Every structure is written in structure tokens, then in C-alpha cells.
Amino acid sequence: MGQDESSMGFGGPPKALSERSLAAVAEYIKTGRDKRVVVLTGAGISTAAGIPDFRSPKTGLYANLARLNLPYAEAVFDISYFRSHPEPFYVLANELYPGKFHPTVSHAFIALLAQKGLLQMLFTQNIDCLERAAGVPPSKIIEAHGSFATQRCIECKTEFPDDKMKEHVFGGKVPHCGEPGCNGLVKPDIVFFGESLPKAFDNNVHNVAMADLVLIIGTSLTVYPFAALPGMAQEDKPRVLFNMERVGMIGNRSDDVIELGACDDGIRKLADELGWRDELERLWRDTVGDEEAERQLRGRNEDEVEDEVERLAAEVEAVAIDDDTKADTKEEASPETEPTKEVDGEKPDNVLSYQPATISPPPVPAETREEVKEQPKTEPTKTESPKVPEAESKVQPPEIKSQPPQDAKTPQEQPAKPAIIKEETKL
């Protein structure tokens, strides 16, 4: 099959698997009815769906947003910036809103796991709701960074109706709260820089420790606390990574398996080994239709990506914020002091023991901060957020790289060369 033989990682030979391969993983799944599978997904799982890439240097959404009317690309997901300039986010929301994109084969595989009673829990960093569209039960989904599924006023927290939200997003209008005397901005329940993580995340991390198998699909594992989840799996339980490159500490345990390449290609290989390929393809095509299935198989070329970026830029320019718009927006917002500082000053009740349940605003590039030049230079504080890494998989909410938790299992030795399978799948 062209697969590399397993090389020994920490802990010696495999304990749960016969060898470090997808064939052995399939054998492991099939040798018991009560296997509890936890799936961890990032933006790479939605690549084939056509959702814009966030962090890749050339095609990434952040890289291209730098060309638009923003002080810095990540500002589109900054709660402070959103309070005064919500228009760019809503142009982006029009692009990413549920219904425009369709699930991938990888999403369908997770739904198939649920149908077979094998899915313990899905933790996703994505905000696109494609897991729901694929048929994964909502009770089995933990959206670590929120999603477009619900929305509410950022001031009074009153929920906003789905139909009105859709009307505003596709009508190019910024929604405002209808509660008497409020008129606050409405935002999808996506975790912005400076906001708290959903309580459901902290309440469900124990599922990883209960898992018999952990599948990690399309994530860079650079953002905590999500990046700590793989380390919570028991030492003698297999972990399988489907990604374009090796990430985190995956590969250091004796039962780790790494499948490099496009997520859908790796998932199809595992489905072949399980004998589920026909069932998987049928479920996927029934969900997305033959036309969309063929489009995903064909993929997008560079011209299509460039056209999409140019169209997005034109839409942002159409709602460019001039001085009058800025003033109107500020009058509509609640007269509060530094919103980000207020958030940072709180102690959210869902704070994890190893990580504050907030995502801090990213540093603003020096060339965009004219006002800073007028102030005396000071040493940066230890709490200053590090720069966002440039390389990432696909769509997911803003991520800030942070230090791993003290209780995370990080081997002191140099990581051993993992068993890496690198093979193109021809359909």
C-alpha cells in the first residue's frame, strides 16, 4: 500500500493496536461494540467545502483581509473593533453563513460514527455548522469557539430570531437589538477575541479521558485550551491524526497513527479499511447532492479563489466605514469604557483550571498604530498576546497561540520519528 512501517515512539511497541497503521485502527474499531470515539476537528475538515482558508500565507482569509479596509486582518473578529465597526464582519458573515456551503466526506464520516453508536463526542473549532448539516446530533457536538447557529445582543444578551438574522445578513444590513431602550449590536454566538469560551466546552472535556479512540482531523493544535484535548486521552488509547502536517505531540505515544494529506483522502482510506466506503459515499452524496459532490471532488483552482477574494474586497469597499458611519455606530453602541478590559477584568464562571476562558485580542501591527508612536516606549507586559501563527488549516475562529497547561503531558525527550503515512489517494 506504500505505507511506512511503524517506528517506535515513546512507550515502545503499540499496546492497543497490532501496528501503527489505519488498517490496525480499523481492526481495533471492529473488535468491540462499545468503542467510544471522540473526534477533534479544525478548519482543515472544511477545506473541500470551499470555505475560505484563514491562515495560509497566500490563500488565507487573514492574508487577503489585509488588503481590505481593516486596521489589521484579525480585527474582523475583535469584539472591541466590532462594537464600533461591525460592517466588515457582516460582509464576512454573508460569505460564511450556514447554507452556502455543504458538508465534506469527513463530516459525513463523523455522522456515520454517530449512526453506528460509536461517537462519544465531537469537539470542533469551526463555526460553519457543517457538522449539524451532515447529520451529527447536536447533543454530540461541542462548538469550542461558538458558531452561527444562534445569535444575541452583545449588550443585553437577548437572543435574536434566526429569520431576522438571516434577513439582515443576506440583505447587507447590521442587525440591532429590538428590546426597548437597547438597540445594541447583534452578533452570532461566535467567540471573538476578548470573549469567554462556551460553558459546554469545560463541562465536556472529561469525554476525552473516557474515549477508546481519539480522531484528530484538520487542526494545527496551536490554541489552548483546545490544543490540550489530545493529551487528555489515556496513554493506552489510540490517537489518529488526519492533517497536512504533523502537529502537537501526536506521534509520541506508542498507539499514535499519523495520516498526512487532505483530510477527506485519509478518511476515505480509513473507511476502506473498515468496509464502510460505499456506505460513507452514499451518505455524503445523499446529504450534499451529486453536483456538489462532483464540485468537491474537482476542487477549486487558483483563479476561482482569487475571484472570490476580489469579490469579498469589493463588498467591503461598498460598505467602507467613513467618518460619519463611525460616529453613527459609536452612538448606537452602549457607552462603556474599554470593552476588552472589562472582559479581561471579569472572572468568567467557565474558566478552566489551566487557561482563562477568554481569547485575548491579537497585537496590532506596528505600521497600523500611528497613535502608539506618539507615546513613550515601554517594555511589553508578560500578558501581551503573542502573534497569530501564519500557517493554519482552514476555517476556524481567531486563534492565539499560548503556552501549554502545566499539567499537560509533554515528554521531556526529543520526540521520536512517528509512523507517518504519506500517500495520495486517487479516486
Automatic annotation (TrEMBL):
Residues 403-413 have a biased composition (Polar residues). Zn(2+) binds at residues 153, 156, 177, 182. Coiled coil: none annotated. Residues 15-277 form the Deacetylase sirtuin-type domain. Its cofactor is Zn(2+). GO terms for molecular function: histone deacetylase activity, NAD-dependent; metal ion binding; NAD+ binding. The active site is at 145 (proton acceptor). Residues 323-349, 367-393 have a biased composition (Basic and acidic residues). It comes from the Eukaryota. Keywords: Metal-binding, NAD, Transferase, Zinc. One of its GO terms (cellular component) is nucleus. Residues 316-427 are annotated as: Disordered. Pfam families: SIR2 (PF02146). The keyword Ribonucleoprotein does not apply. The keyword Transmembrane does not apply. Belongs to the sirtuin family. Class I subfamily. This is Deacetylase sirtuin-type domain-containing protein.
